[in-house]
Amino acid sequence: MAEPKPSNKKLEGKVAIITGGASGIGEATALMFVDHGVRAIVVADIQDDKGENLAASIADRCGCTFIHCDVTKEEDVESLVQSTIQLYGGLDIMFCNAGIMSTSLQTILDLDLSSYQKLFAINVGGVAASIKHAGRAMVKGNTKGCIICTASIAAGIGSDRHTDYVMSKNAVLALMRCASTQLGSHGIRVNCVSPGPVATPLLCQGVGMGVEEACFT
After folding, report:
1. What is the pLDDT of residue 67?
2. 96, 176 Cβ separation under 8 angstroms
3. Local structure of residue 38 (DSSP, 8 states)
4. Separate counts of helices (H) and strands (E) for the chain
5. Would you give the DSSP letter of residue 211?
6. Structural element, H or E, at residue 27
7. Among 66, 88, 95, 165, which one carries the catalytic annotation?
8. First CA to last CA across the chain, in angstroms?
9. Which candidate, 54, 159, 155, 57, places its Cα nearest to that of 99?
10. Edge-to-edge strand ranges of the sheet holding 40-45
11. What is the DSSP string of 121-165?
């Protein structure tokens, strides 16, 4: 008798939020979550058209809703979490993925502090707000949930450019370490993924080439 094939439905019954979910890594993650049997996904982004289109494209495979969310506004993030719970009855996974890159080389000698503050508001403040409100909801619901943050391989190395971006991803690692220590007693896991260069629209725009031109190893 043949052995039964293992199920790939690792996320069966789970409810997930993905910030920055309308394109790039967030979009790919949403599709992967669907393949693994997630019950519902909330795609959160400021890219309304892309978010709506993605939600519509997978709505026949699981519950899927797009919610406009600017992660620099804590009230948006809090509302995102509350709306998800109202729609789907709980929250199991928060993927804190929203982020941007430097708009210029941003070496330390020409660091534009206004651009630095905008980048940190998204890459660090947005992650902190997402962990905070997802963590609160999971603790209140006694959910043994999972919070994932997008860091970067750049956080572990120096760079001759994009100083503010590298700083922000180091801060995300520090946030993750604090949150995992503080939420672990509640059964909530907090981790980072640290990808190398990925040919997303964001990165291609940052290096001045189209996705079709990009070739990363």
Report:
1. 98
2. no
3. B
4. 7, 6
5. T
6. helix 24-35
7. 165
8. 43
9. 155
10. 63-68, 40-45, 15-19, 93-96, 146-150, 189-193
11. IIIIIHHHHHHHHHHHHHHHTT---EEEEE--GGGGS--SS-HHH
Q: What is the pLDDT of residues 167-210, one digit of tens each?
A: 999 999 999 999 999 999 999 999 999 998 765 555 555 545 44
Cα Rg, the chain, nearest whole Å: 18
Scored b (16 or more CB within 10 A) or e, 28-48 reads: ebbeebbeebbbbbbbbbbbe
In single-letter form, the type of residue at position 76 comes to: D
- Structural domains of the chain in order of their starting residue, each with its CATH number: 15-215 (3.40.50.720)
User: Distance between CA 64 and CA 29 in Å, rounded?
Assistant: 13
- Rounded to an integer, the average pLDDT of 36-46 is 97
At 205, list the tokens: 């725009």
Token pair recorded at residue 165: 């971006």
d(CA 190, CA 182): 10
In the numeric block, which tokens belong to residue 162? 């994009």
Q: For residue 6, report the phi and psi dihedrals to the nearest 5 degrees.
A: -65, 140
Token pair listed for 80 = 């995102």
Smallest CA-to-CA distance from 44 within 63, 25, 67, 77 is with: 67
List, for residues 119-174, the tens digit of each pLDDT value: 999 999 999 999 999 999 999 999 999 999 999 998 888 888 899 999 999 999 99
Give which of 178, 175, 118, 117 is closest to 151, Cα–Cα: 175
Give the pLDDT score at 68: 98
Whether 165 sits among the annotated catalytic residues: the reply is: yes
Neighbours of 76 (CB within 10 A): 18
